[in-house]
Amino acid sequence: MAVLSTAIQNPQALITLAVLLLAVVLFISGALAPELTGLLSMALLMATGVLTPQQALAGFGRPALITLMGLFAVSAALFRSGALDRVRELIASERIRSPRRLIALLGLVVAPISSVLPNTPVVASLLPVIEAWCHRRRISPSKVLLPLSFAALFGSTLTLLGSSVNLLVSDISEQLGNGSLELFSFTAIGVPIWLAGTTYLMLAPQALLPDRGSNSDELGDNKDQTGYFTEVTIPQNSQLVGQSLHNSRLQRRFDVDVLELQRGRERLLPPLADRRLEPGDRLLLRVTRADLLRLQQEHNVQLATRESIAPSSLSPSGLGEGQRTVEVLLPAGSTLAGASLRELRFRQRHNATVLALRRGQQTVQERLGQAVLREGDVLLLQAPLDSIRGLQASNDLLVLDQLENDLPTVRRKPLTIAIALAMLIMPTVTALPLVAAVLLAAVAMVAGGCLRPGELQRSIRLDVILLLGSLSSFSVAMQKTGLADALASSFETLLNDWSNYLALLVIFLVTTLLTQVMSPAASVALLVPVAIQLAPGLDLVPNALVFTVLFGASQSFLTPMGHQTNLMVFGPGRYRFLDVTRYGAGLTALMTVMIPGLILWHFGGS
């Protein structure tokens, strides 16, 4: 502590410490958004003369940040192409009947996916599928959603691309003269952690996961709030002909509920699972917006609303040239309320095709053309851009938003996956830098039609870029003012005469606990400089300490705020704060004991 006291007599070190303490308070309290806290801290370090503008802003030009920007684009193309279709099918298959089987599948499959794709969109993509699985089996989502989040976190430490925090650690390590991390630098440690963590999820008592609702009405609420109602017909040449709904590709691949089957003049109501489909059958579906857009490209069904569109007017993707897909709301006082789409001759009147209808939490049982519109109804429309502009001038309809350039590019899926695999393989087998491979992949996605230029720009998370770019100034300031050396000396004094294993265990635990109340990025920005300075005193290579901090910041199993994916499942699972702590405490204890040992095994030490 004497060394720390001496260090803060330096005015710049004292200013840096004050800025860091302010940032910690803001991160914990949430008074400012994390990226604003980072920008404020960076501005204060420049304004007080601790850092020059070039030093403070250097983080925004680092390879790690550019790599992350390219990775956002590659990930967007993969999600847009339906790269997770197979995983969605596995979850919906009849082989997965119990929560424990689903948890095992999530642990074994989601983690590898999250090792190369940001875990937040992975969880977001699978959430509705898992909720639908719970709905069909009358199982509470709280029994499976927390394991989904934890499985995604296991994947974040399998490769350098698994998390933005990994890239930030690599960037800080390079800035401090320790060298950057490679794509598979910590995979040898990450794989045993993934397998041990998955084993824990599979064997942990189910009683640790609460039951926050198990009746079908309660579990159906979430689905109804976002479900559209639409009609599809079964063409003569469809592969679904002769299949039962229960075993059909339609229900295995898409998150749909079949509410009614119309066969000629016959109207069949649920249960319909064992009904075999015939050509000309018309199905009334409840479907999510994303899956509805995907259904337009499914050759085995045809949206009933397309029957009046001449085939020649459709582009290969299912949309006419210049067509857009938008949501419109019937506001209070709309003259369209009280009449059906057929009575209104809606398509002829507005030059727009109604794809689907959403009505709050109510189920629409009428055929789409016969459904009587009400105030508050939301219609999903397909129309030329000029017609949408005309709707914007109408008092009867309120245009809510324009969907992101309409349809996913499912037909580009093989090319998209091939580009992503090449991005991973090339830096491994050649001298090509990882940042170059990611940028080449991003350009190839656009050039190959897997992603549109506008979508590339929208895919980049500006909040993440601002946070990571600004936080690197912390590390530079701590190194420049001697604060990192002073904190490392204090740690060394505290850990004097301790074995390396116990020293790493303490550092891991401190990082883990700090991450529960601060963002993981802020935790590593504060601790990595200290860890690098502490390494010589423990007679360990710096990366042993760097990896300890990195893994500690990634194992966020104790609180909902520990990681964004925990927060994402917190609401849908109806969890309470201590539910996360109860389920994650054993996993945190396992990681605390296991990871320091793995790091010492990997680098050598005792």
Automatic annotation (TrEMBL):
Compartmental location: Membrane
The UniProt record lists the keyword Transport: yes
Membrane topology qualifier: Multi-pass membrane protein
Entries under InterPro entries matching the protein: Cit_transptr-like_dom, DASS-Related_Transporters, Na/sul_symport_CS, RCK_C, RCK_C_sf
Protein name, entry field: Putative sodium/sulfate transporter, DASS family protein
UniProt entry tagged with the keyword Transport: yes
Taxonomy, superkingdom: Bacteria
Residue ranges of every copy of the RCK C-terminal domain listed in the record: 217-301, 312-397
Gene3D superfamilies referenced in this protein's UniProt entry, alphabetically: Regulator of K+ conductance, C-terminal domain
Gene: citT
GO CC terms in record: plasma membrane
This protein's UniProt keywords: Membrane, Repeat, Transmembrane, Transmembrane helix, Transport
MF terms in GO: monoatomic cation transmembrane transporter activity
Residue ranges of the TM segments: 12-32, 64-81, 102-124, 144-169, 181-203, 415-448, 498-514, 544-562, 583-603
GO annotation (BP), single: potassium ion transport
Pfam families: CitMHS (PF03600), TrkA_C (PF02080)
